Amino acid sequence: MKITVSWDNPERTIIRYDFADGWTWEDLFAAVAEDDSLMDTVDHTVHLIFNVQDTSAPPNPLSKMRGLSGQISPQLGLLVVVGSDAWFHRVTEIFYSVYGKNLEGMAGVRRADTLAQARQLIAAHG
Q1: What are the beta bridge partners of residue 46?
Q2: Which of 10-14, 45-49, 122-126 is predicted with the least confidence, judged by mean pLDDT?
Q3: How far is residue 90 from each of residues 12, 49, 93, measured CA to CA in Å?
Q4: Do 79 and 92 contact (CB within 8 A), yes or no?
Q5: Mean pLDDT over residues 50-64, rounded?
Q6: Which of 1, 17, 49, 84 is at a distance of 20 to 30 A from 34, taking alpha carbons?
Q7: Count of CB atoms within 10 A of residue 112's CB?
Q8: Is the separation of the CB atoms in 49 and 13 below 8 Å?
């Protein structure tokens, strides 16, 4: 699998996805299932960082979004995409506008240039 999922902080309030070049939509579906397992170990909101620096998205993102919406945990807070190009960020914004606003807990999608900036956005969000 070309996406690793892990806690980003000792408080277990942020899960970070690290995407390697060549990742697939199947990798992302598996990673979301893995993050659900991590979320099941806590009883509070968990924010996500998608670290997609130096990668590109596989084809057909719009056709894959519906399947992802059914896998979103109600514990999800903010999603911050790090290092994405404008196209990838726009895809995540479309996902949020179509599916995320109707999901319990999902607080929005933001874009950051670095992991440090992503952590700052999450800290400012609360």
Answers
A1: 76
A2: 122-126
A3: 28, 16, 5
A4: yes
A5: 78
A6: 84
A7: 21
A8: no
Distance, CA of 47 to CA of 118 (rounded, Å): 10
Angstrom distance (rounded) from CA 96 to CA 100: 4
Query: Is the C-alpha dihedral spanning 72, 74, 75, 77 positive or negative?
Result: positive
- State the maximum Cα–Cα separation within the chain, in Å, rounded to a whole number: 36
Please report where in the chains the tokens 């990673």 appear, as a residue: 31
DSSP state of 26: H
For residue range 64-95, list pLDDT tens digits in order: 666 665 566 778 888 898 987 666 767 777 76
Helices (H), 40-99: 61-69, 86-98
How far apart are the C-alpha atoms of 71 and 36, rounded to whole Å? 8
What is the torsional sign of CA 24, 38, 99, 84? negative
